[in-house]
C-alpha cells in the first residue's frame, strides 16, 4: 500500500464562482470514485470544492499549503503540509501530482500548468481562462478525470516499455 | 475529519543500526496506537523503520521527500510529497509536524531539532547523539510518544487560554 | 548603497537561437547602461547571453541557480546563488526582481511570467511564444528596458503616494 | 570575473549584544580585506554588523532574506535575494557559501551549522553557544577568517588533486 492509487492534482483559484465550485466538486468526486488521491493547495475556492467532493465519496485529500500552519487548511483536507514557502509550494504540488486537472483559474493556475508542462506532467483543463499548447481541454468533470487517468496510463506504459 | 489526530514528526538518519531501527519502529507503532499521523522524510533508516511500525498498527504515514519523484518514498509511506528541495525540505517536515521525536541521528537530525526549537515546536529525543538545550530526552519509545503528546496538549491549552 | 539601482530580472530558455541570444545580450547591455542590476537564473541560453551583455558594459549580475553548486553558474555571473530547489527557484527570481523582461522562452518562462503577474510584478516580453494578458510586448531590447524602467517608476509613485 | 573571490557565509542571531556585534563587524572587515564576498541572511544583529564591516572596507555583500521583499534587507546589503521561504532560506545560505563563520548565535545558527556540517561545508565558530563536533572554534575575528580561508584552500586542493 505504498501509493494508494494515483495522485491527481487539482489546481484553480482560491476563490471562484458557484459554477466553477460545482465543477471542482464533481472533479473531486470523480477522483475519489476512481480510488485516486486528491492533491491540491489546501486553501479555498477550487481547492476546497474539489476536496469536499473527494471527501463526500470517502477519498483521501492532501493539501500543500503556502503558509506556516496546518490549521490554515480547509476542512476537507486530511493531510495538510505546511510549506511556509508561498507560491514556491506550487512546484511541490506539480511534482507530487502524477497528473493535473486545472479548473478555470487565473495567473497562479497558469503558472502551475506551464510548470507541469515544463517538467513533463500531463495537464487536463476544464473551462480554461488561458490557452496553453499541449494542455488537453475537457468539457465535463467526468471527461477530465477519465482523460487524466488515461494520460497516467500512457506514462506508465512508456516507463514499462522504455 | 480535517486533521486525523495529531501529526507527529519522526526524524533520524537515513541509515541506522538494527538497535536504532527497532526503537524507531516501536516509536511508529506507538504513534499509530495513539491515532496520530506519522510525518517523516520518507526515505530509509529511521524514517522507514518508524513508518513500518506505524503501518503495522494501521496508522497513516506522510513522507516529505528531498527529491523530485514520489517513487523515491519507502514502501511504508502512504502519502509521499515530492519537494525536490533537498535539505530545505527539513523545514517543511518541522512546520508540518506539531511535535517531533528524534531517534538517534547525526548532523541532519541536529539541524532539524534546532530548527524545531527555533520555531517553538516541542522536541523529544531518544538516544540523542547531540545535546540540545530544551529538548526532552526519553528513555523508551513509549515514553517518547507519551511525552510528545503531553507537549502537544500543553501547547493546545496555552492556545485555548491565550 | 543599499540597492545599487533597480533589480531587473531577465527570463528565457536555457538554450536559444543566435537571434534570440543577440536580443538577450542587447537587453543585458541596456540594463547595465541604465545602472540596473541584472537578475537571472544563472544558466545558459538567454540567461548567459543577457549576463554577458551586462558584463560588457560593467553591470552587475546575479544568478539564482536551480542546483546545489555555485560553479554551475555561467561565466558572466558575479553573484551566484545556489538554491538546490530546481524550478522552485523561479519564485525567488520573480520575488527578487522588481520588474521582469522575458526574451522568447518556453513553458518555464511562461510559468515565471504568470507567477510575476500573479504577485503584481510588471512583465515586458520580447518575441513572446505565448500571449499572457497584462504582459506588455516590446519590439526592441531598448524599448523593453525602457518600458521595464517605466513600470518600476509607476510602482514607486503609487507606493510613495499611497 | 565569474566568482569575485570566495563566498564566505556569516551566520548569527538577528539581534545581539554590542560585544557580539563588534566581533561580527570585525569578521565582515576581515572578509572584505581578503577580497571575499560576504553572504548572510540580510537582516539585523550579527548579519547587519558583519555586512557593515564588509562595506566599510569596500567589500560586496549578499543578503538571502526570509521574506518576500528586498526592501527588508539591512542597509549594508548590496545584493538582496527575496526567497519568501522563511527558515528554509537557511539551506540556500549554506549552499551558496563556500565556508561559514558562525558568530555566537542561538537555535537558528545551530541549525545552519549542523546543516553545513551535514553537506560537507567547513564551519568556524566565534563565541559559540553550542558545541558541534567538527566545527573549529576561533578566538578572534582575524583567526576565524584566516581559518575559514584555510578550510577553503584545503577543499580546493582536494578537488584539484582528486
What do you see in this structure?
The structure is a homotetramer of 162-residue chains. The first copy, chain A, has 162 residues and is an alpha/beta fold. The first copy, chain A, is 42% helix and 19% strand. The first copy, chain A, is built from five helices and seven strands, in the order βαβαββαβαββα. A seven-stranded parallel sheet of chain A has the order 4-3-2-1-5-6-7, sandwiched between helices. In chain A, helix 1 packs across helix 5 and helix 3 packs across helix 4. The radius of gyration of chain A is 14 Å and the shape is globular. The two termini of chain A are 25 Å apart. The mean pLDDT of chain A is 94. Chains in contact: A-B, A-C, A-D, B-C, B-D, C-D. At the C-D interface, strand 4 and helix 3 of C face strand 4 and helix 3 of D.
Secondary-structure topology with pairs:
The structure is a homotetramer of 162-residue chains.
Chain A: E1 7-11, H1 18-33, E2 37-40, H2 46-56, E3 61-65, E4 79-82, H3 89-96, E5 99-103, H4 107-118, E6 122-126, E7 136-138, H5 141-161
Helix pairs in contact in A: 1-2, 1-5, 3-4
Task: Describe the structure using short key phrases.
homotetramer, 162 residues, alpha/beta, seven-stranded parallel beta sheet, 5 helices, 42% helix, 19% strand
In short:
The structure is a homotetramer of 162-residue chains. With 162 residues, the first copy, chain A, is of the alpha/beta class.
Quaternary structure annotation: homotetramer
Total beta-strand segments of chain A: 7
Secondary-structure element order of chain A, N to C: EHEHEEHEHEEH
Strand order of the largest sheet of chain A: 4-3-2-1-5-6-7
Q: What's the tally of helices of chain A?
A: 5
